[in-house]
Amino acid sequence: MKMMGRVWTAGLLALLTLTGAEADEYRLGEGVQVGKTPLYLGGYFSLNYWNNFKGTSEVVVDDLAIMLYGGEGAWSALTEIEWSDLYRRRFGYGEQTETDTTLHAERVYVQYEPSEVLRVTGGKFNTPVGYWNRMPINVLRDTTSSPKIVDDIFPRFTTGADVTMRFGVLSVNLLLQVTQDLDTAFNGDDPYNNFDIERQSGIGAAEEWNAWSCGLNAGQYEERIEEETWNYLYASAQYRMPRTRIMAEAGYRRNEANSRSNAGAYIQGTQQFFERHYAVLRLEYTTDYIDRSEDGIAVVGYTYRPLFPVALKGEYQFHSRENEDVLMVSFSMLF
Amino acid sequence: MERVAAFLLLAVTLCAQEWALITRADSPLAALDAAQIRDIYLGKMHYVDSVRVYPLQPEADDPLRRQFEREMLGLSRAALREWWIRRHYLGQRPPKVMGSAEAVVAYVRQVEGAVGYVPYRLASDANVTVLFHDAGAGR
Q1: Which CATH number characterizes residue B88's domain?
Q2: What region does B64 belong to: left with phi over 0, alpha with psi -120 to 50, or beta?
């Protein structure tokens, strides 16, 4: 595990010395070409702070990631490695400091696109469900937090294959996973995913026309340790104009024994009201089979982007569940 | 305010260049419509009729590029930058930037599938296929 980290670090330092872009050619958020190769290097980080105003707050260096990608003809590939929770300092109750220098494989995949109809992806990638999960990093999100539903219904990452077929404005995808998460090959049995799974299958359809788009996904996955199989259904829709975006997602999952289920939904509106300023309002509802309780959440957020790949965000979450209200602030950047 | 906007729109229209989207003379592609061109230049479409296409664009400060982005893509420079920054996370790159219209013509002649937009006077003189023609101020 440590050797893998050293190899990655040495490799990245070597690549950085090969980057041929002069200072005035590089633009923040667009990556940099590695010499004269078809490879591009980029990355992102996120610094988060939360406070529940009940005696506990935290500062977290949440994501520090480096991406390397490129393509030639019908083939392309992307590798993204990440330090997650690199530094965490809790203040107040349970005051402590933690660091985690474990390097994770966030995305590692090869794509083959031989025609306008077909695209095949193999490796580890963001599970193509909904909108939020396809572009999940802080700097590209509308708020610091993600809707709770995105973590509760389906596996956020797939290690396997996805076949996408396009028919005009409609695209259909099939995905399959028959192994553990790729990250376990480097970091033992600790998966880098919201669910520890070793089997997954899914089907999805998405359509886009003018300012509207929508999607529908269904799938099944098997949790490794619990040996429990879950089935899920997920719907998403978005309306996007130059300064306004409204998006909504809803999901439901149930175990095969029909003994447990949870569900959730959210609707979110984002309005750009000045050149670099955005206001966000999100309403969520989730159920939790463990606590057999539900939570209604209202998130009021503000984002300032001095440049698009730089985001300073603040949000306040109002929860119907007691003692869950929280303030969140973050600074994130894509380079 | 409305008069000012109308005047500006008229001025922009009158200054609009006549341009053409071109590709190699022996390409199996014969024509592209505006929707296809938009999808190609936003990275949504990589093939047309089984031909892999490689879009080219002029330098950022080229007036023809600004006209193309405004009229064909319907996006401001800031919106386009946001679009490609999001695509950067997905491992995708914007169209290749060429230093001059002559460089675009030379490139499309050599590379199968390369498409680029140039002033129409260059397209009519070169041995290329015109996939789309915009008459500009002469509409």
Answers
A1: 3.40.190.10
A2: alpha
pLDDT at A186: 75
User: How far does chain B reach from its first CA to its final CA, in angstroms?
Assistant: 26
A127-139 pLDDT, tens per residue? 999 999 999 999 9
Say how far residue A107 (Cα) sits from the centre of its chain: 10
Distance from CA of A29 to the nearest CA of B (A): 6
**Per DSSP, what are the bridge partners of residue A70?**
A39, A77
* Residue burial B76-100, b: 16+ Cβ < 10 Å; e: rest: eeeeebbbbbbbbbebbbbbeebee
**Rounded CA gap, A173 and A285, in Å?**
28
Strands A326-334 and B47-48: unpaired
B48/A116 CB distance under 8 A: yes
Look up the domain containing B80 and give its range: 2-138
Range of the domain at A282: 2-334
At A169-192, the pLDDT tens digits run 899 999 999 998 888 877 776 778
Instruction: Note whether B40 contacts A: Cβ–Cβ < 8 A.
Output: no
Determine the average pLDDT of the residues in B10-37: 87
Residue with tokens 């958020």: A29
Between A77, A116, A308, which is nearest B45 by CB? A116
Structural domain count of chain B: 1
The total domain count for chain A is 1
Q: How far is A6 from chain B (nearest CA, A)?
A: 24
Q: What is the pTM of this model?
A: 0.89
